[in-house]
Model the fold of this input.
Amino acid sequence: MISSVLPTYNRAPLSFVKGEGSWLIEADGRRFLDLGAGIAVNTLGHANPELAQTLKDQADTLWHVSNLYKIPAQEKLADMLVDLTFADTCFFTNSGTEAAELAIKMARKYWYTKGQPEKIEIITFDGCFHGRSTGAIAASGAEKMVKGFGPLMPGFVHLPFGDHEALTAAVSDKTAAIMIEPIQGEGGIRVVPDQCLKGLRDLCDEKGILLIFDEVQCGVARTGKLFAHEYAGVTPDIMMIAKGIGGGFPLGAVLATEEAASGMTAGTHGSTYGGNPLGCAIGAKVLEIVSDPAFLAEVNRKASLMRQKLEGLVAAHPDVFESVRGQGLMLGLKCKVAPGDLVAKGYEAGVLTVPAADNVVRLLPALNISDEDISDAVARIDAAAKAL
Done:
């Protein structure tokens, strides 16, 4: 008999009832150190008092009015994002998947309004993840994502990760954009080298096509810069964000240059809940905190501490681990065992991690995790590795 909740998740046998900072408390009272942060969502940990107060204050004032009207909280957050990034304009969504849908629409509409409707193809790369809508799974092209859901939306060209010759050969008169995660999350914490992001920007400029960055998982201070592409010193034309910007409240956005967004006029896109006062009030508070240079410096310091300890862990367990990868507090342990086995042993040791492709276990802690919790976390992963 089917459960009342559609059984699309292979859930762990854990039921959390309370969160405190980097800790989650199970219904039976057990405490778990959370290195998943809701898959890079809980930027400032669980039950963060500043975010909780912001939510309460806004909830006492105004929850929802719809985008039929101007929303001051939305305009405030948009102004902040424009001031802090390459973007000239923003559209707010509820999730990264919805942001991906708009990015795809925006790129195609751009060329349509330029009188080149044949330019509909978007180039993506093996291991990518852009969400689970029909458009986003077509962008991925991975069998596990698309099997049984055909016919797929046409217009995507899937290339091997890191194959420069294939990329150059794939660009054609039909190419509208290249879409890439500066760091693949679901794909196994695979960092696109700075020189490759620069090469993509140069290629797009040379061919006159749009560059789309998906920073849903790697953005919002996760890597020690506000956005991961800043390390390469390049900017996209369109960028999707979500996860961390809401600190746990459902919120996403598409950021774009004025030129890239020129096709999106009144009536071309919409969202009932996107950019509501509750979400944008919290998003503004998150952005205010994480964009502070002192906060970003602390993320980098903690990332160095955690990476140093993880390197020692890898050296101590050469039969379990191969290497540490990633940037900032978006880290991965490349494993010689099944990632799911390490995650399961982690449950027994009271630590939560997230499996990914390429035999990687992801470590995505709250960005304000304490030094003590970092040491405790690595000790618990060490215990999980010993148990294997």
